[in-house]
Each structure stands twice: as structure tokens, then as C-alpha cells.
Amino acid sequence: MTSDKQLTHISKFLSLVLQHQPKTIGIKLDQNGWTNVDELIENANSNGIKFDRETLNYIVATNTKKRFAFNETLDKIRASQGHSVEIELGYTNQKPPEILYHGTGEKSVQSIIDTGLERRNRQHVHLSSDIETAIKVGQRHGKPFVFKVLAGQMYNDNFQFFISDNGVWLTDNVPTKYLKQNDE
């Protein structure tokens, strides 16, 4: 069986090639972000990242953030969100909860207050439906800070929201007027 350290390494590698740099191993993502599973495994193995279909199935099934998904016939895989390459995930606009959350590191707070939340090199801004997830996301960037996002108000003002396969809310940007510091 593959060790936890190896599984983490493979998972990070999958995030790299399925979200950002498919050319690293010579695979292509279709317009919806899907790539052929057998080709992914073969190209990864020939580039020194060794895993088999059983290991890939295990990573997809057990990833706590549900970062990856198989299609219905299980012959294609994609990242659920977080792409910096241009793809169309095929999500439809949905009404979000009144309040969503965005976790970040304290060092980014002033910039966000100044400019709002911007997608930067990603396709969307990522928002959480619960504060606990936002705190965990913020911890990846230092001391966590959580913004409340007035998502219901944004939706009423014609902003679009989508929900990814793994429950992350996505939108193009969040202007400052829709941001509240969590203690407000």
C-alpha cells in the first residue's frame, strides 16, 4: 500500500496538473476540465510520479476536500475547482445562502478591504458556507482572518454564484461593499 506521504505527494501533483499545468506531463484538459484517466496515469508514471488506478481511486474517494471527481463512466477525471487554466466547469448560476465566508491570512486583510476579493490567477473567488472551513482555508495563509460575504445581497444585485462538486461557492469577484469583518 502507498504511504500517507506518497498519497499526499500524488494528490499535490494531481492538483498541479489538473488545475494549473497539464502540459507538465503532456496531458490536455477538455473545455470542461476533464482528462482521460489512463492517459493521466501513463503520463504521470513516465514522468516519475508512480501510481496506479487503485491509488487514484483511493485519493479521489478519500480526499477530505473532494478536490477531484470522476465522470459518470469513470474514464475521465478533473479538479472540482481552483483552475488557473481557462475551462468551463458547466456549473449553473444558483442562489447562495444569505451569508458566505472567505478565509484568508491576516497579511491580506488590508488589501482585500481596499480592493475587494478578486479571482487573481484563478477562474473564481472561493467562498465557504461555514465559518469553520473558512478558518481552515485562512490558516494556510498564516494567522486566519474570516470575512463575511453578503452573498444574498450580491445575488439580488445580479452577481452570479456557482457551487462546485465539492461544495465550494464560486463567484467572479466580491466588491468591498459586500464584505463585513466577521465581528461586524
From TrEMBL:
Entry superkingdom: Bacteria
Pfam families given in the database record: PTS_2-RNA
Keywords: NAD, Transferase
Tagged with keyword NAD: yes
Membrane-traversing stretches: none
InterPro entries xref list: Ptrans_KptA/Tpt1, RNA_2'-PTrans_C, RNA_2'-PTrans_KptA, RNA_2'-PTrans_N
Enzyme Commission numbers on file: 2.7.1.-
UniProt GO MF annotations: transferase activity
Purpose of the protein: Removes the 2'-phosphate from RNA via an intermediate in which the phosphate is ADP-ribosylated by NAD followed by a presumed transesterification to release the RNA and generate ADP-ribose 1''-2''-cyclic phosphate (APPR>P). May function as an ADP-ribosylase.
PANTHER family (UniProt xref): PUTATIVE PHOSPHOTRANSFERASE, TRNA 2'-PHOSPHOTRANSFERASE 1
Family: Belongs to the KptA/TPT1 family.
Listed name of the protein: Probable RNA 2'-phosphotransferase
Gene: kptA
